Amino acid sequence: MILCKFTKTDSAVYLPHLDLLREMGRAVRRANLSVKFSEGFNPHALLFFSQPLPLGLPSTAEYFCADSDDDPEIFMNGLNGKLPRGVRILGAVKCEKAEVHALTSHAAYRYKKAAKAPNQAQLDDIMSRITVEIPVKTKKGQVVTDVKSRINSLKDENGETVAVLGCGKENLRADSFGKFLSSEFGWGEDYDVLKERAFINANGALVDVDAYYGLAAK
Amino acid sequence: MNEAKLKKILAKVDKPSRYCGGELNTPNIKADAPFKYLLCFPDVYEVAMSNLGIKILYGILNNRADTVCETAYAPWEDMAKILEEEDLPLFSSETRRPMCDFDMIGFSMQYELSYTTVLYMLRLGKVKLLCKERGEDDPIVMAGGPCVVNPLPLADFIDLFSIGDGEQTLDELAALYNENKKSGGTRKDFLEKAAKIEGVYVPSVGKKNVRRAVIADLDSAYFPTAPQVPNIEAVHNRAVLEIFRGCTRGCRFCQAGMIYRPVRERSVDTIVRYAEELIDNCGFDEISLSSLSTCDYPDLRPLLQKLKPITDARRVTIALPSTRVDSFEAEFVEQSRKGSLTFAPEAGTQRLRDVINKNITEDDIFTCMRRAFEKGYSSVKLYFMIGLPTETDEDLLAIADLAARIKRLYRECATGRGFVNITVSASTFVPKPFTPFQWEPQIGKDEIRRKQDLLKTALSKIRVNFNYHGSDSSVLEAVFARGDEKLGKVILKASEKGCVFDSWGEYFDFEKWQAAFGECGVKMQDYTREFGEEEVLPWSFVDVGVTQEYLKEERARSRQAETTPDCRGNCRRCGLQNRKAAFKNSCAKHIKRELPRKG
Question: Domain A103-210 carries which CATH code?
């Protein structure tokens, strides 16, 4: 099994999740890499992806696993150059099982809004609140929910807000949280978000996925 | 348009990847190329991206050092609304350049019901709709594709038509444009010179005799083996490889079978090489060996024998579209998936199949079905036409009878468990220019509905699914197919009333069309009636290669239910054999082949 870290930026932010899966499968074929196939009615390449990104949100920390015995370096280099604009493999490493998507518990998002960035005290104020209620998309539509427990940390980094939010079971969508920050600090609609890291909860501590797997991203 | 603005807009629309560009295999867009061409398809991204023709032309133009070609497809209404609200022009996917800033805009016309979408796109692109309104600084609007063999209904809006194979024509037009610009020529100079190129019709220069452009050799013609891979799932999500152009069968209703003559094939080696390149460059899991009648490719077996090991190793399946009932080779390739089989007998009785020259017998159909069922297929789609010349109710009921017998056959020889699923689809016959049926009337709307109901009742009794088109859109298709210049104002009026995406059922609004015809004083019946053989047909100034005499002769034979055999190995002298030296040889080859058999 090979774990790959990749970007989804530029025009690729508009690629829906299923089309991204298909595209990665085609890239494997273009690069003539050997990936195992499912044995079924419609055999498909065994590629395992992490949770879908909201459409329009760029990321430099996406992951997928490929059931392949190739050398990770060769695999990565083969794919790069065979992918659409905005998708690039940053690193690849061998792994035991395709479980990164199940283990990932948090992700870090960087919110950029020049001139109106909150300082650390303002962010700490949010973290000190007992509840943070924001409208969250559910199957029943928008429901105002207390998401406090899904906010792990909020940090000011040189005038940009880095939020570590829950994903997977305790998911908090970056766009929903962005709207909250926007309403708190008067950003309007014009601000940038980037998903830049993903974390695994290892015995209570958040460990960067790259560190957890020993993946060196370029 | 700047990227920040675009980002805001894309956040609001459905399927933003239709507009964002960035497709894999997008060529280098040369910002400084003097000739800027916008290739357009009057339908949504998913449909446009499935069209091979525009991929060929996109490649040819971008391969020229002096030309840059970008693309724009019809935006869906949510996008169109935002563009209008924000007063932004429709733009190219590649560099977001407004449509109105291009030197030339080309539309690919694949079906008549996309005419209003052309106007919709021009309007959104802030390009003047009428040729006569456009001046020196406006883009030149051109159109090509099968619909423009009769260019007249669009002549008010299109400055230049490219009739026939576009490969050479577009290359010549690009060269001419640059040359004209360099020498300080005007728009009028360009159009006048362009009108001299084979296959080009310029309405403002006048209706002279226009010969369809035909490339002599397909094997050496350009083929895009690294086409753009769509961002989102297209209608045809597969690699397309054109193995030959033209068709030798001579079905009398079929326009493509007449206007793409003569047959020009690619060699086995070329096809195999292109297939490998397509897999390397696109990575699709399916490759379609495309043509008008793929199983007529003379070297199909050797081709598949060579191709199959390559595609198997790369986990690619081969699709053979347009498979005729009598040449069922699909078993060779379709070993993995037992999907549904599609066949087009077109008519229910042998008599009517003979009238339309669909050279298929009932035996062919049943032999093929038996083989398919034995292989495990349990789903069959059958395509028919209603309203064909000389059709009676007996012919229609025979369709239901055929379906019933196929059902019985399944019970006898099926290896799979479960029920057979038979779907009958019936489209309405539309007489098309340059076919032996170009003079035939189209049956009226009430008659279409009566026939559909008759078939529907008969098929529901035996529990066979039945699909059919609305009668209104078929009537409109016939009107535009055999239309003349008078229809320009009707199209404009209908477009002003909001008609767009007419081929999409949910958008088609016949009442608006009726109102448009009424207000312009044009009668649909004038175009759906029977045309006299002595009449001067509106499209007769176009010479597609097949002679009117041949078409008349074929029509006469149809009335006698006399069939005309496949012209492979049996040249019928339709007119193409005299057209170019290259065809003389290829057609003569078929004449010679016939001789020993007779002797």
Answer: 3.30.70
Torsion angle of C-alpha atoms B252, B257, B258, B264, degrees rounded to 10: -150
From B176, B209, B242, the end of a domain falls on B209
pLDDT score for A116: 83
Domain ranges of chain A: 2-102, 103-210
**Binary contact (B315, A37; C-beta < 8 A):** yes
Residues of A in contact with B17 (CB under 8 A): 11, 14-16, 19
pLDDT tens string B373-417? 887 778 888 999 999 999 999 999 999 999 999 999 998 887 766
Residue B363 has pLDDT above 50, yes or no: yes
Phi, psi of A210 (to 5 degrees): -60, -45
Residues of B numbered 229-268 whose beta carbons fall under 8 angstroms of chain A's beta carbons: which are they? 229, 231-233
What is the average pLDDT across A185-199? 92
Mean pLDDT taken over chain B: 91
**Tokens standing for B113?**
């019901």
Q: What's the pLDDT at B556?
A: 96
**One domain, residues B402 and B437:** yes
User: Which of B171, B193, B209 is the endpoint of a domain?
Assistant: B209
Compute CA distances B23 → A88, B497, B562, whole Å.
Answer: 14, 35, 51
- Structural domain contains residue B517: no
| Tokens coding A196 | 């830049």
**pTM, two decimal places:** 0.93
Interface contact B314, partner A, CB < 8 A = yes
**Segment B259-305, tens digit of pLDDT:** 999 999 999 999 999 999 999 999 999 999 999 988 888 898 899 99
Q: Does B5 touch chain A (CB under 8 A)?
A: no
Domain that holds residue B25: 3-209
Assign residue B141 the CATH number of its domain: 3.40.50.280
Tell whether B84 and B140 lie within a shared domain: yes
Region of poorest pLDDT, from A105-114, A205-214, B585-594: B585-594
Question: Which residue of B225, B229, B312, B340 is the best one to mutate when testing the A interface, meaning the one whose CB has the most A CBs within 10 A?
Answer: B229
Q: What is the ipTM of this complex?
A: 0.89
Looking at the partner chain, which of B20, B233, B336 has a beta carbon nearest the beta carbon of A14? Answer: B20
Task: For domain A2-102, give the fold.
Answer: Alpha-Beta Plaits (3.30.70)
Q: Which of B46, B47, B44 is nearest to B121 (CA)?
A: B44
User: Does residue B461 fall inside a structural domain?
Assistant: yes
| B108 belongs to a structural domain | yes
Residues in A touching B20 (Cβ below 8 Å): 11, 14
Max CA separation in chain B (angstroms): 76
Burial environment of residue B31 by CB neighbours within 10 A (0 to 12, 13 to 18, 19 or more): exposed
Chain B closest-CA separation from residue A19 CA (Å): 6
pLDDT (tens digit, 9 = 90+) per residue, B47-74? 999 999 999 999 999 999 999 999 999 9
Cβ–Cβ of A29/B26 closer than 8 Å? no
Residue B206, C-beta contacts closer than 8 angstroms, at least 6 positions apart: none
Is residue A37 within 8 angstroms of chain B, CB to CB? Answer: yes
Query: Any chain A CB within 8 A of the CB of B225?
Result: no
